[in-house]
Design brief:
alpha+beta, Aminopeptidase, 2 domains, eight-stranded mixed sheet, seven-stranded mixed sheet, 8 helices, about 30% strand
Length: about 280
């Protein structure tokens, strides 16, 4: 078998394969959580057997914002092999082909998220980076002064404009708008005055977790308190600087690795400026 590029018109095959392989519950779909892999902005390396998709690796190339500008990086996602075909090295074969193409493109790092650390470690991936995790209940929020009206629900243009202007993390481009707005498992809450917003949950991976926030820190606190009243076990993840700005005390939080990462040039040290928000993670 030779790897082939799967056209966007056949992306539904990826949704079917990954939904089945990842054990999504009935009525839920992979593309609901990760619509980026349905978009035309990614490449899909596939192995097919008689027209049936049996193994897949997705590639997204993007830009990481740093103090010196941007740096080209790649994100691997939607890695899956149909159960009857497992154990034959198909995922390894596609992953190695994906990395060959990524290295040739000049991307300095390849990032991914997954629990199979040993499998990815054999291809040069290691745990890198730092993110912080807190229970929302760790934040001291004064009840006085909270808005008497509930926040606005849904992603809107003012939030999108703020995402486009972010100074860290994976750069959002205007062409990303369609897939960002098409998330069905992310809940957006915002206040107009002071302008503030959070994004809550993203399918199975970010259950009960706030993974995006922006705007006025006091407004964010109020949004978090609103979520806490709904779900006392709700959490938030982010960078040390952003969570400190909101009011969390770092000593109360849990520090964890950001992702699995592989440099194009072996031995290249991880850049501590690198950040990937939950919405950008593959």
């Amino acid at each position: 078998m030779k790897p082939e590029l799967l056209e966007t018109s056949r992306a539904a095959l990826v949704d079917e394969l990954v939904t089945r392989s990842f054990g999504y519950p009935a009525g839920k779909r992979f593309f609901e959580d990760f619509p980026i892999w349905a978009s035309s902005s990614v490449s899909r390396l596939a192995l097919l057997d008689g027209g049936k998709l049996i193994s897949h690796v997705g590639i997204r190339t993007c830009e990481m914002i740093t103090a010196r500008g941007t740096e080209p990086v790649a994100i691997i996602g939607a890695v899956a092999t149909d159960e009857p075909y497992r154990g034959r090295g198909f995922s390894t074969f596609l992953l190695q082909e994906a990395l060959r193409r990524i290295d040739a493109s000049g991307c300095t790092w390849t990032l991914l998220w997954g629990s199979e650390h040993e499998f990815y470690g054999r291809q040069g991936f290691h745990l890198e980076g730092t993110q912080w995790r807190f229970l929302i209940s760790d934040l001291s929020i004064p009840v006085s002064g909270l808005q008497s009206t509930p926040p606005t629900e849904g992603l809107h243009e003012r939030i999108w404009s703020d995402l486009l202007s972010r100074k860290s993390g994976i750069r959002f481009r205007s062409s990303d708008r369609d897939w960002v707005f098409s998330h069905r498992s992310v809940r957006w809450l915002s206040f107009a005055e002071p302008f503030s917003y959070v994004a809550y949950e993203r399918g199975m991976d970010l259950k009960h977790i706030v993974h995006e926030s922006g705007g006025d820190p006091v407004g964010i606190q109020k949004l978090l308190y609103y979520l806490y009243l709904e779900c006392p076990i709700a959490q938030i993840i982010g960078t040390e600087s952003e969570l400190s700005r909101i009011g969390f005390k770092i000593n109360d939080g849990y520090r964890e690795h950001l992702c699995l990462a592989r440099p194009r040039v072996k031995g290249t040290p991880w850049n501590p400026e690198f950040w990937v928000s939950g919405l950008s993670a593959g």
